[in-house]
Design brief:
alpha+beta, extended
Length: 74
């Protein structure tokens, strides 16, 4: 999904089976590819090391921040 600045979207997230209450995190960024992803890859490498595949082309890096969803009760 391609989100534009100052553009709001509503997402329907599945409620995990067996959970009475739930809240999660949603990344509101856009994927960075190629050279544009290097700063995010280097930051990830310095923070986590090789464990998360920072320099693997299969790993996607998003430039936005995580936003906590409101807590939902079933």
């Amino acid at each position: 999904m391609d989100l534009q600045p100052h553009h709001a979207e509503t997402f329907e997230l599945p409620f995990p089976a067996g959970a009475g209450r739930w809240h999660g995190l949603v990344n509101v960024g856009q994927p960075k590819k190629g050279v544009a992803s290097l700063p995010l890859r280097i930051e990830s490498f310095l923070h986590y090391g090789f464990s998360n595949g920072a320099f693997s082309p299969k790993v996607t890096f998003l430039d936005g921040r995580l936003i906590a969803t409101p807590e939902v009760e079933e």
